[in-house]
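To close the section, here is one more complete example, presented without commentary so you can practise reading it yourself. The ligand is 3-methyl-2-oxobutanoic acid.
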Amino acid sequence: MSVHQEDSRKVTTHRLFEMKQRGEKIAMLTAYDYSMAKLIDQAGMDIILVGDSASNVIAGNITTLPVTLDQMIYHGMSVTRAVKRALVLVDMPFGTVSGNSLESLNAAIRVMKETGADALKIEGGREVSDDIKKIIDAGIPVMGHLGLMPQSINKYGTYTVRAKDEVEAEKLMNDAKLLQEIGCFAITLEKIPASIGKKIADELEIPIIGIGAGNGVDGQVLVMHDMLGITQSFSPRFLRRYANLQEIIINSVGNYIKDVKEKDFPNDTEQY
Ligand code: KIV
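Output:
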């Protein structure tokens, strides 16, 4: 059994900052329910993200856009009930932080109050920085999310690598600096060239967590269903699969069906 837990104290935004200063990498993974969150926390994860990828891997949508605030709150409260050590982060879903600071703040307060999460993650740079600042000013820790922002997929039209040209790379750096300036405690960078991920991590004081942003950043995040091999159709270059749960689950369920059909289950010791 592989459990990495050198320090059983609760992970806080301050401890993440200290980890960056020490050069200790930060591990982050998604979870959406009580049972998996409990296992992931027991394994020693630093940050558990209740991602809006719930829209894809839990609800079966093609994009992250359909998941609602109420659904994120349901997943968030299921995860916080299980977690003792990791910092729990809930994604603000599409449309809840989009230029109306008062509405964004009310949505953010709902998530914090109803889930008991430690912090929020919000996609976007300058365009939503007033909303993010208002949320941070209300005492809610925020992790930014830049680079590929899946909530803007209809604007991009593609999930290809972002910030490959100079203009977009410069905007990315400026947005990252702005998010740090307004008080974000960390930033997720998704699917950008490794050289830019490293440059941003080197220039900023707050932790930079990458997903497809190379190994020069301060930590890594993956979607749990992808890294455990529950989903198999999604295979970007940045994904490392640590298990093939799809095969294990299909084989186990197949064996159960066979045992029922062949009247092997339940046997004498498995009944009252
Ligand atoms: O929703 C999510 O799972 C995410 C990760 C891809 C970082 O935002």
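Once you have examined the tokens, check your reading against these statements. The chain has a mean pLDDT of 97. The chain has two domains: 13-241, 245-272.
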